[in-house]
């Protein structure tokens, strides 16, 4: 790095004398070198810890690797389509993909709708607004392990407060095991997702709302537009690009999500998403090849979805 | 009354109602966490619906148990706190050391591949971490880095780098170039300019990024689970809590105390710096 960083305080004019063997660097080239030098550590870390592993996952997906045989397998062992084939034909794969899709769509829509409502209600100043706004961000900043644990306890059939009051006030016949029965587990996980990530949408939408010029709404009001009409015809069109962008971001992030589902249900009761399945292959079955193949399938499916999305909404996002 | 007046009045009330509902929904789980953590388990089993703690039943024994070392019959959370703190601070500092020059370069200097760097970070940011986890798991197993906090720090740096560089870059771009140029005319070199002009000006943004990095590292779960699960003395708070919650031996109230211990530092940091952080996170949003 020391070779490329330009010396301090040297101006190009001072380097002119004496016919130089090498031509002195122009300012432009020095800038370029400095830029590369400064960005090099970032690139190195990113390539070493993220770039290479991604490539390697793809390689592993086409190899027969188990944790036990790991030491014997080289980077370029024999390649096989076995893993991909096995993954695609294992029972439950299609279900997992379907569940992941429902979960991602539900979580995305839920969090954006909640975030939009939240942004609309705290848009105008009122007393205690700062505190309200900060409180609304709590689910997003709090540690995932802590909030999933609290949800588990709240929804617990024996000592959970939800079932206690549900039976007392809402007249439920029996406690509902929200997270362990097929009929409610996925919906509960989606509700958690919406609860935990609506602050993300809220932040972006609020920032955009505050950038909408006041005159626009004022003019609409003078023309006799009611509040709902102003929302429909003035605010919503202004927000659509952000909503479209949030749609992609949240969908991708939810699709990749591991922690939330793993911590809430462990993937049982019909909530097994692809990431959790990959984790199970990796640790419980120590079948690295299959895990990698699964992960590659996950990434490919994700890329396809995003491309489809961009095809339809690309202009709005851009 | 015409439609406008009806809507205005009803929406005003609806708005208050919605704000109240949002407040309850977001804050209640944290309140519930706090309440359970100071109730004895027997009282909880008798009356799971209570929302306030009676003076008679208030206890801090749960905290004592969760913090005490395992040798003394506790759950050893003090060790976990030390591990988490160590990892989070190291990851934050190292991320900044790497990200600041990188962000400066992307914001200010024209170099080959500068445009691609942006795209690269976005792609990295959105790529499934489980895909990265597999080979890292393999490599760390081979290199004997599994079970080492250093390996974890390395992973956390890579996880926080994209957003850190992005946020810092946005901020550097708002600093007028003329300031740096006048420093250059006064004879300062590139590094001198960064150190004496750009860094002090970017301090608010750097603080925001540091807080963000710390929170991500403190809260992280997947990689801690993959790398540290066999070594209880290396567990982070998140990992320790989740693994203990899987079993049935530890009372829920004690674990709630653990949740409070895990959440409190983040909540304090967050409320102390809320403005800084939200502005930092969305500073690039207006453009989109």
TrEMBL record, chain A:
Q: Which residues form the ABC transmembrane type-1 domain?
A: 97-309
Alphabetized Pfam families for the sequence: BPD_transp_1
The UniProt entry lists membrane topology as: Multi-pass membrane protein
InterPro entries membership: MetI-like, MetI-like_sf, UgpAE/MalFG_permease
Which compartments is it annotated to reside in?
Cell membrane
Which UniProt key words apply to this protein? Cell membrane, Membrane, Transmembrane, Transmembrane helix, Transport
Residue ranges annotated as transmembrane are 36-62, 97-122, 134-154, 185-207, 234-253, 288-310
Q: Where is this region: Disordered?
A: 1-24
| Gene Ontology cellular component annotations, sorted alphabetically | plasma membrane
List the SUPFAM superfamilies.
MetI-like
Q: Does the keyword Transmembrane helix apply?
A: yes
Domain of life, source organism = Bacteria
Q: What is its main location?
A: membrane
Q: Which GO terms describe its biological process?
A: transmembrane transport
- Give the PROSITE patterns listed for this entry: ABC_TM1 (PS50928)
What family does the database annotate?
Belongs to the binding-protein-dependent transport system permease family.
The protein's name is: Sugar ABC transporter permease
From TrEMBL, chain B:
Q: Where in the cell is the protein located? A: Cell membrane
Instruction: Specify one Pfam family.
Output: BPD_transp_1
Q: Which UniProt keywords apply?
A: Cell membrane, Membrane, Transmembrane, Transmembrane helix, Transport
Where is it mainly found?
membrane
BP-aspect Gene Ontology terms: transmembrane transport
- Transit peptide as a keyword? no
Membrane topology term reads: Multi-pass membrane protein
Q: Which residues form the ABC transmembrane type-1 domain?
A: 81-273
Matching InterPro entries: BP-dep_ABC_trans_perm, MetI-like, MetI-like_sf
TM regions (residue ranges): 13-32, 84-107, 119-141, 147-168, 205-229, 253-272
**Keyword Disulfide bond applies:** no
Its Gene Ontology cellular component terms are: plasma membrane
The record's comment on protein family reads: Belongs to the binding-protein-dependent transport system permease family.
Q: What is this protein called?
A: Carbohydrate ABC transporter permease
Instruction: Give the organism the record lists.
Output: Micromonospora orduensis
Q: What is the organism lineage in this UniProt record? A: Bacteria, Bacillati, Actinomycetota, Actinomycetes, Micromonosporales
